[in-house]
Design brief:
single chain; 522 residues; 5-stranded mixed beta sheet; 5 strands
């Protein structure tokens, strides 16, 4: 067995271990009710009824169908959702493992472990992997795309360009926004250089233009085949696909949402800079250092330059969207975290060379602890957060402390089960009190007086909505007035004891108010 073969096998073995450990982490504490998330019930119904609304590409749903063949066909919406969560955890773990192989390529085992720790400890990814959502599956597309891009740039070949095209197809099949990866792949293919040996050669001449055009054709062909294989139902049900895609296009590009005031022409280009707080300071510093080093005209390896280009390109595209979300920022965040991991071996070498001979072992050991010190504390905080479910405590408190004849109105984020809404099918009701479901309490009821007139005695609201409408303008002034009136006239009886950095889907910050008795009609 050659040394190169042994090295590749060692890298693959380490990546497999990373995937197994990350999957175990992401699949813990993932059996909470599916109706907690606003989108999961809809996806569970699509699996149970074998229908698609095409608001997203089909990789996650197709993979969940495949999981049902292994785990058994789901018999309820909760079972379907939990199988989808298994797919999310597997996809996210595989994506982190793919990124770790880039670290192995550039910095051996230390680079691989550093990238795995930095990427896998993203709290956005950790949370996404616990839900039946496309974001975790998109991580698989990100990891495969970057790995294939690096592999092709290091040694271009027809086989590797086919893998790159297939990776593009996987990314697009996870989320439509994966289409922005294609221009970057095409640029790398059209600028490809010759590779006459096993290693990279930055000064090698460009490959003949005919060959580069042929590679571009293979890229497009592999993308089309992979995309069609995963999304074949979009071809069969084209009209429904066109409607779903149109809705998502207006959502992501024009910013036209039914419940958010965002003018299509209003694009705050610098808003996503705030999301840099998702990356801990040490990882951010290392990531920016990696991006700065990538700007050097000549580098010994292509990994830094390609990951930096991917990160910058996705940040540029995001800056033109009027919408804002932590999960939308995930490609940029994973790019920064991968850059940071690629810098750790260099930090280790610098520490070794800078230290006195007697202190080199200690200096190198300190550098080896860098990934653990940067990644583990925020990750452990998220792990702790998923071990609590304060909705259960709220429902227990309501059952034991409120009169049986109480009528409780709730905001959509509270998601206390009620028999009046399809999202809660199969859920155990909390107690004898009557609970009303509202998607947006302030919009649907308008005022506290309207609630009182219908016999409502208690209200549950989410702090996210209160803060959101307190900053809103225009038509949201009525919603702001509703929450101000509620805080002034109502009596706060219960509040979620959550931490500020906890996941707000599993544990939203909820407030339970009692309303004053309605004044008698004159």
């Amino acid at each position: 067995m050659s040394a190169g073969t042994g090295t590749r096998r060692a890298g693959l073995a380490l990546a497999f271990a990373v995937a197994a450990a990350t999957f175990a982490l992401y699949s813990m504490d993932s059996h909470f009710p599916g109706y907690y998330h606003v989108n999961e019930p809809d996806k569970g119904i699509q699996i149970l009824e074998d229908e698609r609304n095409f608001l997203h590409p089909l990789l996650m749903l197709t993979a969940t169908d495949a999981a049902g063949l292994v785990l058994g066909a789901p018999q309820s919406m909760q079972e379907a959702i939990e199988q989808g969560r298994v797919v999310s955890a597997l996809a996210a773990a595989a994506g982190v493992a793919a990124l770790s192989l880039i670290g192995w390529s550039a910095g051996g085992w230390l680079g691989a472990l550093a990238v795995a720790l930095f990427a896998g400890s993203s709290f956005v990814l950790y949370e996404s992997a616990h839900y039946m959502k496309e974001d975790a599956v998109f991580t698989l597309g990100i990891g495969l795309f970057l790995l294939a891009l690096v592999a092709f740039a290091r040694r271009p070949s027809a086989g590797r360009v086919l893998a790159l095209g297939a990776a593009c197809g996987v990314a697009i099949s996870a989320k439509y926004v994966g289409g922005v990866f294609v221009p970057l792949a095409l640029v790398v293919v059209l600028l490809a250089r010759e590779r006459r040996g096993p290693g990279p050669a930055p000064d090698a001449p460009r490959a003949p233009w005919r060959r580069r055009l042929a590679w571009a054709g293979l890229l497009a062909a592999a993308l089309a085949v992979a995309g069609a294989a995963i999304n074949y139902r979009a071809l069969v049900e084209y009209d429904r696909f066109a409607r779903g895609f149109s809705t998502e296009w207006k959502h992501g590009v024009a910013g036209k949402l039914p419940d958010v005031d965002v003018a299509p022409s209003s694009v705050p280009h610098l808003r996503y800079r705030r999301n840099l707080k998702q990356v801990t300071p040490l990882i951010l510093l290392l990531g920016l250092a990696g991006a700065a080093q990538a700007l050097r005209r000549r580098g010994p390896r292509p990994e830094l330059g390609l990951v930096a280009a991917f990160t910058g390109w996705n940040l540029l595209v995001l800056s033109f969207s009027p919408l804002h979300s932590e999960t939308y920022f995930l490609p940029v965040e994973l790019g920064l975290r991968t850059l940071a991991g690629l810098m750790v071996p260099q930090v280790g070498r610098l520490a070794y060379l800078a230290a006195r001979p007697r202190l080199r072992a200690a200096a190198t050991g300190a550098a080896l602890l860098l990934p653990l010190a940067a990644a583990l504390p925020p990750l452990l905080a998220r792990v702790e957060a998923f071990r609590h479910d304060y909705r259960v405590e709220l429902m227990r408190w309501m059952r034991e402390s409120l009169p049986a004849e109480a009528v409780i109105a709730q905001d959509g984020k509270a998601r206390i089960p009620t028999p009046d809404d399809w999202r809660f099918q199969g859920a155990a009701m909390h107690g004898p009190q009557r609970v009303l479901f509202s998607r947006h309490l302030s919009s649907e009821w308008g005022s506290v007086a309207a609630l009182q007139a219908k016999g409502v005695t208690h209200v549950i609201v989410a702090a996210d909505d209160v803060r959101r409408y307190s900053r809103a303008r225009g038509r949201s002034s009525a919603q702001r007035s509703f929450y101000e009136e509620l805080a002034q006239d109502g009596t706060l009886l219960w509040k979620s004891p959550v931490r500020e950095d906890w996941d707000t889907v599993l544990n939203p910050e909820l407030y339970l108010y009692s309303l004053p008795a309605a004044a008698p009609a004159s």
